[in-house]
Structures are given as C-alpha cells and as structure tokens.
Amino acid sequence: MPKLPDKIETLHTRIEKSETLSPEEKDALLKFSSELGVHNYSEGRWTKLLQHCTMMAGDSSKYSPDEIPEPDLVEIIGESKKEKEAAKKYVSWINANYDSEESKRDHRVALRVFGGHITEGDYEDEKPSSIEWISADLPRDYNPKPDPTKMWWWDEHIVPVLDNAKHARNKAAVAVSWDAGTRSEEFRELTVGDVSDHKYGMEITVDGKRGRRSIVLITSVPYLKRWLEVHPRGNEPDAPLWSDLDTGRDVSYNMKLKMLRAPVKRAVDNGDLRKPSKIEFTRMRKSSASYLARKNVSQNHIEKHHGWVENSDEARRYINVFREDTAREVARTHGADVSEDEIEDIGPVECPR
Fold first, then answer.
1. Which among 173, 292, 306, 334 is most buried, taking Cβ atoms within 10 Å?
2. Residue 193 CB neighbour total at 10 angstroms
C-alpha cells in the first residue's frame, strides 16, 4: 500500500485516537479520506477538506464539542427532510462563526464534498438532497479587494501592542505573525527547530499548503531572540515555538490566538490603540502582504514570501490596492513635498525588556 502523505497520516492518527468522535464518524472520515486519495485530489486540498470535516465532526482545537452543531456530521447526509434540517444547522453555524466569505465558502464546500464521497452514486453529480442545496459560491456582492482601513501597520498598531504585552512570548508572537505573514496553521505549528539565523536577521521554515518555504524575519528579530532566551525548552528543536510559559508544552488554538489578543486588549484599554479590525492570524497575514505591496516589493517576491502560486490573484490584489499611492506619486512628479506621507522602511528594532 502506498505511503500516505505525512499530513494525511497525522490526520488519520488524530481521527483514530479522538475521544470526541463516534465510531461512525471515525469510519466516515477515514472513508472520506480514502475517497479523496482515490480521486487524486492534491495533497493540499485533500488535507484541507479532511481537516474541515474532522473539525465539524467535533474534533477541534478551536471549538469544544458543545460548540459544534448537533446532530453528528454523519447524520446530516441523506434524503430525508430531517437530515436536510440538520444540514441547515451546520450551514448556519458556519456563517455565524467565520468572518471571511472565503472561509465560509470553504467549509460549505467541505460539507458538499463529504456528502458526495461517503454515499453511493457519482460524487459530483449525485449528491444527497440534504446537502445538494448548499451553496459552493461566494456572495454576488463579495469584493475580494483588501480594505486598507482594516490593516495593521507596524508603527501605528503593532508597536503599541508590543508595548502592552506582558510576556516575551506574546511580544514575539505578535511581531513574528506580522513580520512573517504566515498562514494560521503555519504559524501555530512552528517549532524551535524551525528558527535559524540569517545574514539579514533570522529565518523561519514553514510547511504550508504549497510545500516548505523559508521566510526571512527582520522587524521581529529582537522579540523572537528574547523569547528563545527564556523559552522553557529553547534548546530542543522539536519543542513547540508557541508553548506555555512553564513547561514548554504545546497549547491550544485559542491560547495561541490569545497571545495576540491579550496585548491588543490591554493596549485598547490603556488608550494606546484604536483597532483597525479584529485581530486574527489571517488579518496579520493580510497586513504583512499590504506592507510589502506598499513598499513596492514585486509580485513575484510577495508570492514567494506568502507561499502563493505564481501569478496569483491574491498577490495581484495587494499590488493593485497598496502599490505606492498614485496620487502621491503624481504629486511628487509635479514637485510637491510628499515626504510626510511616505511610510518609512522598517528594520530591526531594539527590544525593550
């Protein structure tokens, strides 16, 4: 039997050992995974679909079992009115728990694909009626262009947050998430061994949906160095980078998100910050891309930095919105002094202890 990709193998182990999934759900999820492999889904899409369905079945680091809709995921698949009503609960839950229209769409699609693959018939054209109605599209009025007013800028937003962070770990988490612009999973799964020195600063290596890539860190270097100095297991390459403060053990999704949110809340409460938007791993990634585009980093380099495919629509949107402001460049051409409007280049900063 061919060896499964490492991420799929890890997901299978998680499903098999889960204390929250029923035997029926485990069987259905493993069958679903097998079907995805048989039908030659890419490793990235296979992983994403299985992750989404495993989470919605109740095995989640982000949501407790009582926060997941009822009944069990396998009980929403079928032809009856009861099963369709159950599926509606899942769609309502998705729409209520995710802000991003892309995330909502991705989870709805996962339900559709799951239902198509664990039942008889053609998995594309003969889906069970209970889930066939679920939309796989984005809203008609959806505008994917990044919104400049929601971005977090280093001097205006990140520095006040760092000034209000209590722990070296939280300072490093905030700084690295903005500096690196990683995907949520890439950030959360970092280990101490993924960090190395680089001639320009430091470097992290992540294993994302496009494969492994290395990201050079600049602004976050002093904060990350300080955290590694006091990390409980800072000399162990396999230790989670974002661990608890006492033992160096891994912590939950919500705890890692709290590393960002706790100092943000403190900065707001102290009157040092007006939030441009809700702080999320994804928002930090978007803000990182916005800064790079605004500093005229090429599309190719942004794609490599963020792990996007070549000629990606995502990178192009940031280039189009945040490339040096046209009005400012026109004014400069006509001899106007625009120096006050320019964003300074950000280099390594001294880390206050």
1. 173
2. 12
